[in-house]
Amino acid sequence: MVSYSAIEDYIRDLKRELSGVDEAIISDAIDDTEEHLGLRVQELLEEGVAKLKEDAVAKAVADFGTPSEVARAYLELNDELKGKEEKRQKKKEKRSLFCDIFCIYGDWRVYTGLIYLLLMFPLGLIYFTYMVTMISLGIGMLVTVLGIFILILFLLSNYGLSWLHSRMTEVMLGIRMPRKPRKLKAKGTWWQRIKAMFRDPRMYSSLLYMFLMFPLGIFYFTVFVTLIAASIGLMMSPFTTLLSEIMNLPIGIPSPPEARAVLLPLAVILGFLLLTWTLHLSSILAHLHGKLTRSLLLKR
Amino acid sequence: MAGEAKVKHDEKFEKELITGLISLVLLAITRNKGEPMYGYQIAKHMETGNRTHVQLKQGTIYPVLRAMEKKGYLKSEIKASGSGPPRKYYMITKKGSDKLEVWIAAWEDTSNFVNSVLGGDVDG
To answer: Is residue A176 located within the same domain as residue A251?
Structure first.
């Protein structure tokens, strides 16, 4: 059996054992292991059971299980999740074409996904403004020490923001995300920790994500507000046409009265189909956006 | 115990027994404690109360805790700690308590049955 003298080595082997498994499960496994081994090592040292940190790690790992034993326990969990996913897929395959198209109205996830995509615009705007302000302020004041502090503060807050955002993504899109804020792994002086932060690829990918949210948010917002407005407008056209008739308002579909019997029902059907298509589009985009969020905020 | 040295232990069998009951044991620990517990505390609890000859690897209880959280039997809360990484505290839910009652009943029935067979009350 391999003996470990540092928690990092153990985590590295655990990651290797879990390669190819759902990212969120790997993330859970690492969090649990770090929490447990960290506490155990601390306790062993405090109680004097082990004098050296290396010995404490070796003892803690012996009780915790080898990376392959621990990985197997998580893999069983993964299989269980996969089994559920397969069942869901099978249920989906059984559905008729009609249900494939219209059952989307009964899926609440589609609505939360749509709200999520619409929220990307204001949130992206806030993140973007915050990012640009802090970075330009930090760089502008770099000649004074204050600039460095502002930049570091911004980068630290970026960790918190990405965590909040990943929680929101999990709740609204149902995509599993890491469960707790990552602690900066590096120990030592402040300078060493800051250097480690700059070496963390996740920091750069999360910055890229926060930046991308702005253009993507504008795109989602424009597309969906237009599509929803158009479909509702079409579906409401009989009422608006009637209203324009009674109140003499310039709304509704301008049409000769004899053509209305055909035109208006057609507009309602068209509006309904457009709304259905919009929901499908939002479901696809929410799924893709979730994948993007996961790959940029959950990189290990 | 005097007899202890003579009895050979079938670790594989004991391990299978305890693994099958791990969810029941973990759920009962979180209920009995009556306050939120983090994984390490639960693991320590398991270790001190375990009179079998199988030392369960502590790393294997965490996925079980997460699975029970997913099923709604446990809920969790992450709290920062003064030293070391943040800790994930588990608490039993109403659904978990109800499930535990069901499992305890099943366990009692099973153990009564096994005991009666072992005691010779039931003919094989």
So the answer is: yes
Same domain for A121 and A257? yes
Domain stops at, among A94, A109, A127? A94
User: B-chain residues within 8 Å CB-CB of A74?
Assistant: 63
Distance CA B62, CA B56 (A): 12
Under CATH, to which class is B11-103 assigned?
mainly alpha
Q: What is the pLDDT of residues A103-136, one digit of tens each?
A: 888 888 899 999 999 999 999 999 999 999 999 9
Number of domains in chain A: 2
Residue-wise pLDDT for A125-183, tens only, equals 999 999 999 999 999 998 888 888 898 899 889 888 888 888 888 888 887 776 555 55
Q: How far is B106 from chain A (nearest CA, A)?
A: 23
Q: Which residues constitute the domain of residue A194? A: 97-300
Q: Which of A38, A68, A94 is the last residue of a domain?
A: A94
Q: How many Cα atoms within 13 Å fall on the side-chain side of residue B103?
A: 16
Do A278 and A289 lie in one domain? The reply is: yes
Give the gap in angstroms from C-alpha A117 to the nearest C-alpha of chain B.
26
A105 and A233 in a single domain? The answer is: yes
Residue A48 Rama label (left phi>0; alpha psi -120 to 50; beta): left
What b/e sequence results for A271-296 when a residue is b if at least 16 CB atoms lie within 10 Å of its CB, and e otherwise? beebbeebbeebbebbeebbeebbeb
Residues 161-220 of A with CB under 8 A from B: 179-181, 183
- Minimum CA–CA partner of A26 in chain B: B63
- The predicted-structure confidence for A180-230, as pLDDT tens digits, reads as follows 555 545 556 777 777 777 887 888 888 899 899 999 999 999 999 999 999
In angstroms, the Cα distances linking A184 to A147, A203, B86 are 22, 11, 11
Residue whose token pair is 């978990």: B96
Largest interatomic CA distance in chain B: 60
A140 and A269 in a single domain? The answer is: yes
Chain A residues whose CB is inside 8 A of the B58 CB are 36, 63-65
Spatial separation of the C-alpha atoms in residues A1 and A66, rounded to whole Å: 8
